[in-house]
Amino acid sequence: xRLGLAGTGRIGARHAEILHRIGEVDSLVLADADAAxxxxxxxxxxxxxxxxxxxxxxxxxxGLVVAAATDAHPKLILRAVAAGIPVFxxxxxxxxxxxxxxxxxxxRDTGVQVxxxxxxxxxxxxxxxxxxxxxxxxGRVHTLRATTLDPAPPPAEYIPRSGxxxxxxxxxxxxxxxxxxxxxxxxxxxxxxxxxAEFFAAAGDVDTGAxxxxxxxxxxxxxxxxxxxxxxxxxxxxxxxxxxxxxxxxDERLPVRSAEPGVCWPPGPAHPGFLQRFHAAYVRELEVFxxxxxxxxxxxxxxxxxxxxxxxxxxxxxxxxxRRPVRLAEVR
Length: 332
Description:
The chain has eleven helices and 13 strands. It is of the alpha/beta class. It has a seven-stranded mixed sheet with strand order 12-11-7-10-9-8-13. Helix 5 (97-107) runs antiparallel to helix 11, helix 6 (124-135) packs across helix 7 (165-181) and helix 7 (165-181) crosses helix 11 (303-322). It starts with a strand and ends in a 5-residue tail after the last strand.
């Protein structure tokens, strides 16, 4: 199997390393707007280098992995689909709902598989939580609590093009809540604050946010996102039911310490970031993409799935600005 990869920055380089170790991938072709970066990574991996997108698409690839900047996602997805090439694309599909809808409309009847990179769907803990909910072992699920807390902010120049905290960070929680519960989110009430660097407010963003989500069966989900969790990278999902409770991310590297005397758990150290926390999930989702390219599987996370999470993020942003609950019907 011959795969192409567009975008060799932080996440793209990690994807390239993973793909290079998947036995079924015979050759890997790398491209980037920064051609020198792609050339250096290709040389280090023994992969091939494409000078530009025309070279990449003309190199006979069977599938494409997109890890480029967000504004390049739609055109790369559409170009690959037009050529009949299955695509794996990091979230988001596009920078906004309108762009996502356009991509969905243009690929809808092509039959070409597109997989969007919500890697938590491939994490062992989140998968176990989904299985427990589907099996009914927790009883009636009444509450979910989800966190996405970064240990430190990204660079200032990233924030204006990130889409904001709810679209950039919270969207992972919205997707996984839908995936674990099998329910739809119908209403949100979101708040955000800025007590950190001034560049968040200057970009119209917030560095800390929270939202209450109401699901279509009246289950409540509480989500929290932040850029200043100095204890470490903290990403969890707690699922609370009438007969039992379960948590993903509650392990020995949890960046929370007990205030109770004599309690020494967890021993740590905390995960420093998302690449370390979700390494196994990134490996698994790319292994599944290889199955998709080979025709052995359908996309496990479609553009339609990404659109639903995008709608929730848009509703949260609207709620934050208007300081009121927002029904999802308002942003559809």
